[in-house]
Amino acid sequence: FHVALSHAEIQFFHPMRFFERTHTFPYDWETCTSAWWTKYPNPEQPHVKEVDTLCREVDQDSGRLRVRRLFYLEYDLPSWVKMMYKRNMEGYAVEDVECDVRNRVLVAKGSNYTFSSFFRMQETITYQRHPDNPEWTLYRQRMNFTVSGLGVLCGRLEQAARDSSAQKAHNGVTVMNNLIERLHLTNWKADFDCWRQE
């Protein structure tokens, strides 16, 4: 057991508009990304209500898979924002995924659609083969928060968004660990190889 396997590093940058996290999963890229596609919805992250695939395509030259997904979410905004806008805090976010199977890299970029007139949250996550061990997977998450039009309240909303996202990021890694471990125990690769040979 190596400490890097369970080590997660969180960094906050100044000005406080960025959140970044890295984590090493002690499983290969194929297993981690296969589990990732099934992550939502899950009971540990109830803020994600629904996920729909809008389109998918495979680039014939590069072999890369591109997918666009629509998320229906419950936004975890402060109570004073809810009182100000007097509306349900549920809405949509869009995610674009590019999966490069040949180079073992998956990149997903998402941003909120609802509330984007005053609050913008952009997220980029990456799963790639670990440079130190091809049987591990390096995960990176970066989030950027931008608030405008709320005067002195902008900083308060940015802080609340960062705090909420940090907790959700921690929960998300826990969910992924569980999904990956369960998938690994099914010996799914052997079943996949049998199916492919039929």
From TrEMBL:
Record InterPro entries: PRELI/MSF1_dom, Slowmo/Ups
Gene Ontology, cellular component aspect: mitochondrial intermembrane space
Domain PRELI/MSF1: 16-188
UniProt-listed Pfam families: PRELI
UniProt name for this protein: Slowmo
UniProt source species: Perkinsus olseni
